[in-house]
Amino acid sequence: RNTHGYNMLIHVQYSSIAQPHSCLTSKPKRMEMEADVLGVRISPPFVEFLDAKAGQLYKASVTVQNISKSGKRLRIHGPLSKLFRLTVLNPDKPVAPGLSLTATVEYSPETDENNRDRLILLSEEDVIEIPVLAFCPTCFLEMDLEVDFGTVVANSKVISKEIEIMNHGSAPGTFKITYKGASPITIVPTSGTVEPETIQKIRVEFCTHQSRTVNEQARVQLQRSEDKVLQIKADVVEQALEVLDPTSEKRLECVWFGPAYFGTSKLQRVVLFNNSPQASDWVAVLQDDAVGAELGTDTEQSTDAALLEMRLGNDIKEVDASAVISCVPNEGKLGPYEKTTISLCFSPVYCRDNGDDTNSAEPAKQDYALFMKFEIVGSKDSFIQHEVNGILPSRDNKRSCVELAITGTGLSVSLIPVPGPCFSFDECHMGERVDVLCVLNNRSTLLPVAFKFRKTANFIISPSKGKIDAGLQQDVMFSFAPHQIGSFKVNQLIDILGQVSVLDSSSIQMTFRPFHQISLSFTGICKPLTRKIQPRFNRGITPAVTNETGQGVEVGTDELAKCSASVRMAVLSATKSNIHTQKRSRSLDRNYLIAFPNDRSASIRPHSRNEHYRSIFTKVERYNYVDPDFAYTEEEERQRKAHKDYYIQFIQNLRETRLQKAKQSRLVSRELADVKDEVDIGIKPAAGLRPRRLSLRDMELEPKEEWPSLRRSRLLTTCTLAAIETQSTSRCVTEGFNVIPSTTQEIEDCSKTLTAQQLHQVIIGPSTVDFGEVCVQSVSSRQLNIVNNLPVHVWVQAEIDCQELQQSSPLSHVVPPFSRALLPFVFETNKLGKFQKSITYTVNKKHTGHVLVLATVIPVALELSTSERVLTPTHSFLAESGYRTTVTLHNRRNHLAEFTWKPIITERGIAFSIRPATGSGAVEAYKDLECEVVWHPSYFSPQEGHFDLCVHHGNTTRLRCVAKV
Question: What does pTM read for this prediction?
Fold first, then answer.
């Protein structure tokens, strides 16, 4: 309210009755200024009645003050309209300066409408009009004219936003919103009444079932206002995963690994990109049952060879596709527009088992073509394919997964030694050497071969390792250099080296190590060479037969016997000799060893650190030489002793255990022998006993803790998922399940946080529950499947917050391992139109998903088999006997339809009748009803008539009947 006493709301209301705006702004101000000039002040400058209702009496006062310096004659005359009445006491004498004249205006409206009039103020000879305005209660509605959902993901989820309709007026206002577009937009409510000074919230729902750019318009009708347009905008994008090349950042559709040897691996990296504004959990699934997949097939062989292998298919063994392709990581979570690097490993596995020697046969070639999909975790359909009319429905939602083709070739190592795998060396003597040349031929035209010979005693190979390119050969020299006498026959192994993967749950490590072996046979003989060595004798105190270091040489026994006595005396009697004994060496410990005088210091290398040497005569400690490069340290000596003691104790424990078991066995045998009945009565043990019959339930394998589908480092495959689901769906739990976890095992299982792989194996579907066309007030039900393919319990809860699905119960299930449960949805409504709602569910109260519920609510209706019936006389009776026929009513909807036949009576009347005619009939859902039409002939009977088929709360159809005489 401003200084003049009227607010903005009055301006708008007054302008709505086509009065000039200057009447409320310019004219009152001008009148007030003119009144001041004329020496009077009018307060208020105009008289107004706000929110005046019919039948009520309203009063307002106006004061006229004399502000001039002299007295003035003031008189106020009433309005022209009878709705306004003026009450005033006009003075006969002039009004003194500073005094005022007060008048009261009464307003009593007969209808709710706006009125205006004026008061006449006479000031001496001046005439001044005072406006009188009356406004009835009115509404003033305002609303937001734009709903922008922004960028959303096309995941078949119903999203909603609310807008407000505000009524600033003093009377209730009505609104109506009409939308006739083709987009899945629902506006609730579409019409209603907004009370004064209140706000009405309008919910706009939009189903994101496909990518598009939405810019729709809805017509808005607000009371006492012009029609407006409500803009509804949304940018719906695909929730798409993309596989990109890590170098070029371009889309990648196929990964070519190329050729690789069986037993080796090849590693390539790709980038997984979440090209959507919503975070999502993803999982990698290997499609080993996809059309066009090849697992160990030579695509280059001839047709005849392929047909022959098909006939002789007994040598083909099954290969797990997940052992050929590895993916790390194979599950995870990506944020909006986030990327992650994924490592793909190709490890070809030989798929044949025919007993052929791969060293001599032609290299086997096997091609692999597999398909992998990266799928977004959520509600989905079954993993099992059901064939309908020869067509396999697609289980994959193309918007929530991306497919990647993987190709590669597996080759056998074809390294052929020439000549042959058996090598025979000539006879040679000790110290001689025999060489044989070998040629290693790499017959593979695609891959090189890296080889390494293992070390073998008495044989030398040069070069011992190397690399042979594809289609080339390498000369290798085998040498027989014996170090001892005898015949030698050894297997020389050739290690073939390559990149082998070491798979971990978080990474794939590539190591260069042997993956294949080739065995060669070496044969050689070393003969002894007789050679006589002349010994040198030293008659001193040292042994008679020595060399430079004081050690014995190769001499005959008869020669050694000549001086053996003196040697024994020098060594054995050293402790008894007192020659040259030093005074400080009073005694000689018997643990000391005696060293010869001419032994070199470097030759005294004791067997143990605890051995000590003394001279033979002076008993002085001799220097012991310990080589630090070969001797054990003190720590190593302690470790050797602890290791030796451990195994001694281990062997003793084994012996004691064995003896204890033998003792117990003897005791049991003795007890059985004591109780054994010596009299044989001729009964055979277990004679006549039949084993218990096993049922399928007894033959089921108990799930192990490490179920193959739960191994994090192993890829999920479609065949494995389908096999587990087949087992789970056969165990449908219809009763006896728990609504909440009750047992200790259930509480423990239902408190776990599932990984993306595990959550992917909990099937909750179908993702869209479509009730189709349903009638008003009808009850329809659909079932939601919950298949638990995990070896643990899962707790699934659905949250329903709409009135149409309130009859659905129960909404909570604790599903046992490897079983299936059904969650019923019951739909009932009284509102026509399309129904779409996202039902949110949780798994173990930690993982959230949604299911889309759709329905089209239509009224009940009946269909006529024909809109016109021609009645002719029956062949079995006379024409005068009557004309009869039937018309069929078809109820193709899911609710009982009540109807009534109403004849259209003209001036000539009607001569037709339909049974049932009086009262009303009813047609059951999806049933038919035949009604009999009869024409009653007479002289004045009309030969044509019409009937209206009126369905209660439904449609109306007209039937035309014609009698053909």
Answer: 0.67
